[in-house]
Write a structure and sequence with these properties.
Elements (H helix, E strand, L loop, with lengths): L2 H13 L3 H8 L3 H8 L7 H14 L1 H12 L12
Helix pairs in contact: 1-5, 2-3, 2-4, 4-5
Length: about 80
């Protein structure tokens, strides 16, 4: 599956955030988080944005780490005139 699940698993583990606390913050069933965490299902792009917002509410550094792991260096030093 995709990069989002791997990034989510790494961030939740590293920052000691439970799947349940993320599910509560997002207003979802824990089973949804479980499926992303274990790469059984990929979150949609809209849901990835919701994950970032929920992580910000739990731990701002975790949110930054998730974005970095998910997008890598894609956004760093990007020339606005380059596609």
């Amino acid at each position: 599956m995709g990069r989002a699940g791997k990034a989510l698993r790494e961030v939740l583990t590293q920052y000691g955030i439970s799947q349940n606390s993320l599910a509560v913050k997002m207003g979802l069933q824990r089973s949804a988080i479980y499926k992303w965490f274990h790469e059984e299902r990929d979150p949609t792009a809209e849901t990835v944005a919701d994950i970032v917002e929920a992580l910000k509410g739990l731990d701002g550094e975790a949110a930054k780490a998730f974005v970095h792991l998910y997008l890598g260096n894609m956004l760093k030093n990007q020339d606005p005139d380059q596609p």
